[in-house]
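#struct-queue
[09:14] JT: dropping the first one here, sequence first, then the structure tokens:
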Amino acid sequence: TGVPTINILGRDYPTDSYTNITPTIISKLPLQLHRQPGHPICTLRTLIESHFASFSHLSSVSPIVSPYQNFDSLSFPADHPGRSVTDSYYINKDVMLRTHTSAHEVEVFERGEIQWLLTADVYRRDEIDGSHYPVFHQMEGARIVDATESSISEIQEDNERLLRHLERSNIVIEDVPHLTPANPAQPSHNRIHSEAVALNLKLYLNSLLLELFGGSAGATKEDPLRVRWIEAYFPFTSPSYEVEVFFRGKWLEILGCGVVLQSTLDRAKVPNKIGWAFGLGLERIAMILYSIPDIRLFWSSDPRFLSQFKAGEISTFKPYSKYPSCFKDVSFWLPEQAEGDAKMHENDFCDLVRDVAGDLVEDVKVIDKFTHPKTNRDSICYRINYRSMDRSLSNEEVNVLQAEVVSRLKDRFGVEIR
């Protein structure tokens, strides 16, 4: 047919106007840090799995999904920004890289799993700085039960057991009501069932946070671990919550969760169930627990990084020397747009920089925007901060990278450098 194709994980896919996956991203797909024993991401995964010992543990699911799996099966609105090519990586219009582990909820429930954890690499087009990376690892947890009086009374007994455990523990929880007019039970749910399930979710997660953070924070009776719950909104749960932990003097957002949307369970062909789900980012928690200052470090193969960690142990990262940074600015007129053309997005620029320089870029910032008073043309200036985590970069080496960034900018976007 002559349609250009792209090879991803050993399979050829036709490309089209949606295709925006880059060689840098394709190179990350086989790495799966969550399955590399001794790596902080893998250790954190196994610690959480041991807390949910009776759950199924899934961790080898392909990152290639359909937009239906990633968005529609979870009731994302048609105009949700996550669907756009500026936010997500598309192989073509029918196939993409998952942006969250929830993309697998329907298929896992449909397979008959009723309580499970799923850990996976997820992909989002993003800015470049110390806490954002286009690949990260999430863990999804879910539990569903029959929506019957006897199953709900089992949940209520479970709640009593967990409450007693937490009352004896060094933890202080700032809760919010399980249901409010702004964070309601779903119309098809019995209110008492919904409250029991929401409480079960909160208790499971409070005890997980106590295990993860209580030990590291050295929680005591006098200085207990502090956790707070906040009402939230997600397209695929109601009621929904976010959870924060007070750790080393700051409130840190840890995860989002809620009661699973009935339409998700209906699509999974388990309509008579009710349950909860949560999703957490493993990098965010690992950066906190291990004191890892830069998200790029997780991808380092430097033995000075990897040799610091042992499977099953959380230890404090000891920084090796911080190498000098090298700033380079690039300033250009944004291309004139024909009617209906997509505007060049900041994530397009960041992807181009990543493809040239990979993890040698610490951050990218906009330092100036200007509109010419006569021509109305827009210009923008980005500052690229090159800094290796492993060695000193020479100015000559950085100049070569910067020249390649400029050359690709001109070729790909037809920009005029100022």
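[09:21] JT: and here's the second one, same format:
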Amino acid sequence: MSVKAFKLVSAVEREMLMGDKNYINIECIECCGKNLYIGTNDCFIYHFLLDEKISTAGKITFAATKQLHKYLGLKKPVSELKAASALTRLLVLCDNTITLVNMMNLEPVPTGARIKGAVTFALNENPVSGDPFCVEVCIVSVKRRTIQMFMVFEDRVQIVKEVFTPEQPCAVAVDGYYLCLALTTQYIILNYNTGVSQDLFPYCSDEKRPIVKRIGRQEFLLAGPGGLGMFATVDGISQRAPVHWSENVIGAALCFPYVVALDDEFITVHSMLDQQQKQTLPFKEGHILQDFEGKVIVATNKGVYILVPLPLEKQIQDLLASHRVEEALVLAKGARRNIPKEKFQVMYKRILQQAGFIQFAQLQFLEAKELFR
């Protein structure tokens, strides 16, 4: 049974990006605060400011204002963008080279600092250096079976470590000293400081696109065999039951308490609290789904959309209105980490009371008595 957890809202219309140039495609996106960056197949970066507007009826819309665009001078697509807001830098991967550009004017740093030979890269969101003016970057190197760790400063880069892997890596996520890697035939956790690795489970990267996503301290979300979204800690164990995706998931994102997944026809929403599928949104030709500081963004080749979460209280009330008491209580308990303590206690008491009356009306007196207590 469905819950209305998200609404899909358009953010950047096709005309704003490409006008009548049909050959332009969106390759990657990055969002940092109100700043939205788009990398295209014709080697341009576009910078938009996103403004969220709420109507008197509570309807949310987004107005995107184009700031500027910049040609990187190559005939290659911009394949990845990552913002390092503490350094006011944007890391841009194009033609196997990561270039540092200014977040505001998109100009390359004057020193010309860059990282060459990168296939893909990830930032360490739980850094180990303790330096606030440095970003830790892990790259999958063009050298066979090699991962490299870099420290990136405002105008220079410094290699810290080179680690060899048992098979060719194709995707990576980082947490502290731990790398979660998709290799050719399996996922592994690798501690790049000690060199100790732990096998997770088999996976064939030739058949499907791997998904490796850090979702919290020392925990990752992976696209597993049989269309399962699997959770794994750095110790190689799973503390949550998997969610059932379709076989051909392209991307996944986290917006607590939901895991959102994209395939070639739908966006699906699963609860991390009971693993049930809660919502399905038709969405054709999507090829990017990412979350940025709690904002979930999805894109086709031609447009960018935002998945706006409905307030958790509204979702709980909708569940109670449909007499889905168990689900409402699970969601209410899960909402504890998103709501200030005093406000939560008042809300939770009211929900228990409503749930009690529903059970009472259904003649489930014992259950009602517990809830009223």
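[09:30] RK: nice, looked through the second one.
[09:31] RK: The domain at 6-309 is CATH 2.130.10.10 (Methylamine Dehydrogenase; Chain H).
[09:31] JT: good to know. The mean pLDDT is 89.
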